[in-house]
Specification:
Mean pLDDT of chain B: 90
Mean pLDDT of chain A: 88
Helix content of chain A: over 70%
Shape of chain A: globular
Radius of gyration of chain A: 20 Å
Number of helices of chain A: 11
Oligomer: heterodimer
Helix content of chain B: 40-55%
Number of strands of chain B: 15
Structural class of chain A: mainly alpha
Strand content of chain B: 15-25%
Order of helices and strands of chain A: HHHHEEHHHHHHH
Low-confidence stretches of chain A: none
Distance between the termini of chain A: 49 Å
Shape of chain B: elongated
Largest interface: A-B, 52 and 45 residues
């Protein structure tokens, strides 16, 4: 397996694959973070997570059209505005969904699964009616499409770097929000003991709504970023949802650190294996490995002790 | 008294009118029976056909164009007076990208609706699912997609290309004109890309050239960084890509981001799975420079095609693009009409017997003819992707290529 490459080639293979793995890792973190917040902190299985991502992607598409038609001179920068809008739009939709549906289903995780799955179908149909069944092409500013050449064989795509820095920025922001802010303390208090948190004066309903909206908002940003690497169609969200759940469950659903660690493990393993064996086999082996670990540690890699 | 007499008269009048109508109806049914002895949904003014595609689910993206093409063809045929003097009515069913649903809906169309023909299916999986039903109830399916071959059914007319028609001419062209020596084969992981690549590999090796890599990714895969790295290391002359659906968007965007500029043609990208429809999602600027081997491109310069594109845009909107499969779907109703008229009957067996040898000189792709093996003779063309999302035709085979669904030595 290694014999067909020279040692210098192997060096650059590992460098390139390591980097490809880092990009995949960032993608996984962006996909899974929103889901982990909602699932880990609220116990809601959000099957519509992929559709929230696609809403972010469609908003990016709309903003890119708007800019190319009305403000072509500012086109290079539209992406930042698109991401901010994507965050607020999906967060708003998330808050609406929490208010209209999710709040009646707390403590019934399997029902949230069904309800959000229905929601995902409804959203898909809405996208199909509004944007058409075909995929839409999101035009990217030129600076996002280039790459830096490090050596003859090692080239680093700019959009990969962009996704990586975005993943780092959002993880840090979430960490600060959860572990350093007053609101984060409230969220964690509600997770650990809801009646007690309510008794000490925390508005648990409001905390729930904000948490759900935040998770959805992050999905929106992820979707916006993914227009750089993936497709945007009514059903594209489905492509991401399996990987996302895989990362969250493997990491231990209640731990954000676990989500990040599991995203790292899965992405590096998959990316290295993809190089030496086929893409489909790499996926199969990754899934087998995850299943085996979950048989030994059903609660996932990392887990918070929660009073049940 | 007067009143009853009057009513008697009316009665007699009415009864004679009735018998007149009855005898008329009788002769009409006799007329309908001549062209339809097997109880299909044919009256003396109408004939019912089925359209069976996915308009929901993941395949809706691809199959929408086929539905539009088939409806346009039916409308045009009706405007010309229909088939054997009968207007075509269609019953549309949704396969919902789900193969059991396809099977169930095809049974409904054949058994309950008694349609005279069905235009439909897109993926090989959906075709395989409906095939036993069409054979059991003796229906006629017009199937539009380019596909892997290795199939021939008396109940299907294949209006797209089978694998050898599309692949071999394309590879011959890059070998001859672009001096290609090494190939990297890449595809989505299911039957069509795998069979196509098998034929491609056989042909490449027969020419004494080399395949330096072959790779498959699950449907819907969006991370191609690893394979792009491999391609960079192995430095093939040609990337032969059969990635399908939304994965294409990821593949070409990442190819570009990784610094592979397809306009430099080193490596050159040759695809058989990206039509104008897919480019809409990929974005013309990410596809520019790639080559595609197919039988039809929207930009094909001939009078038939210009009329077709104009009519299609008038009917379905100016922004629409027309890909290879959409054109093949458009051929279906026309080929059926020609076969019915040649047979002088809607009966499936007679239509089937009349089908081989049917020609269309008005086809947008130029000229087509039905082979005895139920596939079409067709040319293979090479399109060069432009920034506006259209292909420029840079080459076409001189002769029509004979369809060969069971190629010797390629299986």
């Amino acid at each position: 397996m290694f014999a067909e490459y020279s040692s210098s080639e192997l060096m650059s293979i590992f460098a390139m694959q390591g980097f490809a793995g880092l990009i995949l890792f960032s993608v996984f973190v962006l996909m899974a973070l929103g889901l982990a917040i909602i699932f880990g902190q609220m116990g809601v299985i959000n099957m519509a997570h992929g559709e929230f991502m696609i809403l972010g992607a469609y908003i990016t598409y709309l903003v890119s059209n708007l800019f190319s038609q009305h403000f072509p001179e500012l086109f290079s920068y539209y992406f930042f505005i698109a991401m901010i809008l994507a965050f607020f739009a999906t967060a708003l939709l998330g808050a609406l969904v929490e208010w209209g549906m999710i709040r009646f289903l707390y403590h019934r995780p399997l029902d949230t699964l069904l309800a959000t799955w229905g929601l995902s179908l409804i959203l898909q149909q809405i996208y199909r009616s509004v944007f058409g069944a075909r995929e839409v092409g999101v035009t990217l500013p030129d600076w996002l499409m280039g790459s830096y050449q490090l050596s003859e064989t090692i080239e680093i795509p700019v959009n990969g770097l962009f996704v990586m820095s975005l993943a780092i920025a959002i993880s840090l922001a979430v960490a600060v929000l959860m572990y350093r802010s007053r609101w984060g303390i409230q969220v964690r208090a509600v997770v650990q003991n809801r009646p007690m948190a309510g008794a000490v004066g925390i508005n648990t309903a409001k905390v729930d709504r904000m948490t759900f909206a935040l998770g959805c908002g992050i999905a929106g940003i992820a979707g916006s970023a993914f227009t750089m690497i993936g497709s945007t169609g009514p059903t594209s969200g489905q492509l991401y949802i399996v990987d996302t759940f895989l990362v969250v469950v493997f990491g231990g659903a209640t731990s954000l650190l676990g989500t990040i660690a599991s995203a790292f493990g899965i992405s590096q393993a998959q990316s290295t294996m993809e190089f030496f064996i086929s893409g489909s086999m790499a996926k199969v082996l990754t899934l087998l490995f995850v299943v085996m670990v979950l048989m030994i540690r059903p609660q996932g890699l990392f887990n918070l002790k929660v009073r049940r | 008294m007067k009143r009853s007499g009057h009513s008697k008269l009316t009665k007699r009048w009415l009864s004679s009118l009735c018998s007149l109508a009855a005898s008329c109806a009788l002769s009409v049914t006799a007329m309908a029976a001549e062209v339809n002895t097997t109880g299909l949904a044919v009256t003396d003014t109408t004939v019912k056909v089925g359209i069976l595609h996915s308009v929901t689910g993941t395949m809706a993206i691809s199959e929408t164009g086929s539905v539009q093409a088939e409806k346009l063809a039916i409308e045009q045929i009706n405007a010309m007076g229909g088939v054997l003097g009968r207007k075509i009515e269609f019953i549309q069913e949704d396969g919902a990208s789900d193969w059991p649903t396809f099977a169930e809906k095809s049974r409904k169309l054949l058994v309950n609706d008694k349609v005279a023909a069905v235009f439909g299916c897109w993926t090989s999986a959906s075709r395989k699912a409906v095939l036993p039903i069409f054979e059991q109830y003796n229906g006629m399916l017009y199937y539009p997609t380019f596909y892997e071959g290795l199939e021939q059914s008396p109940n299907v007319i294949y209006t797209g290309q089978e694998a050898t028609q599309q692949i071999i001419a394309g590879i011959d062209w890059v070998v001859k004109n672009k001096d290609a020596k090494t190939f990297y084969l890449l595809g989505s992981d299911y039957i069509w890309p795998r069979t196509s690549n098998k034929i491609a590999r056989k042909h490449i090796e027969k020419l004494g050239l080399k395949v330096v890599g072959e790779e498959y990714y699950p449907l819907g895969h969006t991370q191609f960084n690893s394979v792009i790295n491999k391609i960079k290391l192995r430095k093939p002359d040609v990337i032969y890509a059969i990635v399908v659906g939304g994965s294409n968007v990821a593949f070409y965007k990442q190819l570009k981001a990784a610094g592979i500029d397809m306009t430099k043609e080193s490596p050159l990208v040759l695809t058989i799975s990206v039509t104008e429809d897919e480019i809409l999602g990929i974005g013309g600027e990410n596809m520019v420079g790639a080559y595609a081997a197919m039988k039809y491109f929207q930009s094909l310069p001939n009078a038939n095609n210009e009329a077709f594109v104009k009519a299609f845009k008038e009917r379905w909107g100016n922004d629409i693009v027309i890909g290879d499969v959409t054109q093949a779907a458009y051929l279906g109703p026309w080929l059926w009409k020609a076969a019915v008229e040649k047979a002088g009957s809607f009966d499936i067996d007679k239509v089937r017997a009349a089908s081989p040898g049917i020609e269309l000189t008005t086809a947008p792709e130029g000229y087509v003819k039905v082979h005895e093996n139920h596939h079409l003779w067709s040319k293979t063309r090479i399109g060069h992707a432009q920034a506006d999302g259209q292909y420029k035709v840079v080459y076409e085979t001189e002769e029509l290529i004979e369809p060969d669904p069971f190629p010797a030595g390629y299986q």
